[in-house]
Prior knowledge:
Number of strands: 12
Number of helices: 19
Strand order of the largest sheet: 1-2-4-7
Radius of gyration: 25 Å
Number of domains: 2
Structural class: alpha+beta
Shape: globular
Helix content: 55-70%
Largest sheet: 4 strands, antiparallel
Amino acid sequence: MRRQTGMTLGLWLLAGLLALPLLLWQGQAQPLTLETRNGAATIRFSATPDRVLFPAQCIGVAWQAEGIQAIYVNGRGSVGAGTAEVCPVDNIPFLNIVLQSGEEARYELPVQRLYQQPLVIVVWGVLLLMLGLALYRTVGAPGVIVLAVVVIFAPMLRSQMNLVNDYIDHNMFAAIAIADPSKLPPHFLYHILIIGLTQLFPGMNLDNAGFWVMLVAYCLTGLLTYALLRRLSDGKGRPLLLGGLALGMMLIGPLGTLESSVAAIYPNIYHNPTIGLMKPLALATLLALLPFLTNEARLAGWRVGVLALLTVLVTLAKPNFTMALAPAAALLLPVAWWLDRRIQWLALLLGVLLPAGAVLLWQYLFLFNASSTSAALGGGGAQLVFAPFEFYTVSGVDPLALVVNLLLSLGLPLVVYGLYFAAARREIGLNVAWLLFLIAQTQAYLFNERPQIGSGNLTWGGQIALYILMLVSLGYGLKWEQRDWRTALWALVFAAHLVTQVLRLV
């Protein structure tokens, strides 16, 4: 025991020593300033510090420009003088200036990206390895998962926060709601969380608050995916293997796309904050629901209360998961009868159907009326209409491409169910996951929003339901694996899902 403790402390000490040169390099940073004239225009542009150690590290910039028509700081419109915090990933801080003559000029600050230097890469690599080993010996696989999620997804999230319209729009909705809460969208959980963070930490802006909320959400997604894999597989598989599969699940995608990416169903979406927040809450809801479906849990009031709370929260994050969960819960009676299984019906009623119905009804009445004040609609109402395949038609999706992309998206679940059909047809968890997906995707195919017919807001449900279906299929595949050709086949399909998505991302 002492030897193991000493080794763990040694790993932490080594990680701390490896961090020292990184801190030293960062400590040598200096302000970086550019001053120039362009005709009648004068420009001053500065950054502090002049170097970054890792992608998405934030730096402070200041600018002052006179004799110009317009100015854009890292692509965002601004006024002639100001300060901001920018967190570049693939580029360095830059100004785009529109001169009085109408000509455009670009000015960049050559901030050093130390993480691109070979020596720094080596130090970071060894440091992360030591941290991973220390975390594994201290808290097990969950610690490694959190570290890996931060390393993989923090730069991606910062890039999305800086550049992607969905993040910019939702942060704008939050900014509007600070002055007028009636402008909040009906799925307001993300917005009130980032507003709350800026109130708790006055120096934090909405973009940074959104980044931290989403990074925590991604870490929770990894941990809950790992927990569900352990539960569904009955503990089969080593913790590090399950942790690796959990990370793989967060990167998995369709086997490919035909004609249009709109027709494919992506289990992982990175460009939207509300679905990113909905995902861990949906997984937590599933984790709380499973014991009632398998009749493992007694009908305790606190368990039902937790399930009801999670149902409310996931609906306020984004309603699409609950729009599939509520009808699925109502249809579980014939499913349970078919599978000859007993389920806790009162828990479903009190923990899912009643809270889901109440929140969904309020959201519907709030959003789909002519007097809606939500900033998400520009102050006007909307309609939810029965319009089969309208979204896909206006997006130019061919019917054949729709079918092929559906099959490419469902590769792993179809293979696992087919290989283990005799056992799969009797597993209520797997069949509920299929039911969730079928309901969510049917809603996407048959209904649409107007006048925003091309927004695809009803497709979010199919995406989170596919993530759950793939996760549950993977869990049961692990449970039934016998190290035979069937295991090799579904493992190969899982790897194909993962590789194609990673190639698409890079």
